[in-house]
Design goal:
4-stranded antiparallel sheet, single chain, 15 helices, globular, alpha/beta, 8-stranded parallel sheet
Length: 408
Amino acid sequence: MTLSRRIFAGAATAALFLPAPVRAQAAGRVKMTEVKRLTLKVIRPVGTYPDFLNRPRVVNIGGGAFVEVHTDQGITGIGPDIDPALLPAVNAVLRGQDPFDINLLAARLYNLPTGDNTVAMPVKFRGTASVEVAIWDLIGKIARQPLYKLWGGGRDRITPYASMLRLSTPEERAQQAVRHKAAGWKAFKVRAGYETMKDDIRLVETIRKAVGDDYVLMVDANKAILDTGVTEGTRWDFDRAAKTALAYQRMGVWLLEEPFPRADLDHLVELNRLLTMNLAGGEGNRGIAEFRALLDRGALDIVQPEIQIEGPNHLRQIATMAQSMNRMCIPHQGDSRLGTICTMHLVASWPQSVSPYFELFNDQPIGDYTYPFAIFENPPTLQADGTFALPQGHGLGVTIREDFVERP
């Protein structure tokens, strides 16, 4: 009995020297206690530029907000920003819950109670996908693994493509493409949508002549938003879309994104039948059923779900569905911060044949990807071989710098 008590006492003492997550698991299941929203200081304004719809977009180093999911064991998960009006309902769902019940909790977050009713609003407008990201970060920290490892691993480096934010001139885009190629970027995506088809085609002709035939070019027509009440921008009819797409195909464009409004499945299917070039879209689609319809009907070769709308659970299901149909899943950019980091982990956990690239805005000088990443203590950066190394810390693997955080 004495020996048994000594062994027990020794084990208890040794447990005090274990890392906090391991002690937490030894003490019982971790329970979530509160979700908080913290704002970030603007350290430096960068400037303003017109986006592809000629709407002003402000760029700062810092600013915005993020969420923290706290637990009874002192472990905290972080995720992208959320509408503060949603915090009471989010806390009512998560308080006292085990983060490892993630499937159940994510489903509940998709149907938050509002007043006396439960409404299934698009996640983009509720922001609860951000909370799901934070719960996954928490799970990774408890398990002491980076998320891409928890989701199956496979790659510790992934390849970005540089995505442009503005509708610019062919000459400026050609110069940028040359600079990106020299810096190691393996692929470059521009936005099309000039008033005339001639200018849309000249855009790619100018870039292709500047970078040569061995560089991966992509084009985003940005037409999917036209069925959401947006009046800016140039709409393509089927004839213009087909002629433009076939011209791009002859110039070796690898991907054409969103040539029609997202609900115009008939034209997407008809156009895709004419092409060997990849047709892509889906950044604004919502729910598994919409992506299933796009894939079932052959409307797209590449689906691009947005993590700020769907959340990690749905993105994983969409990628598996695409893989089962020999299609690709290359998610949309995310929020350029924690959502984008989470997307990187997802892409790294999928086969390269399913997700050969990930999107990263890098419309220099104002839209440089390093500006939003500046809130991190350990931001990922482009490597000499044109890849990004996955963060190896637990969970998302990144930490927000305390000098940016406004704490009460």
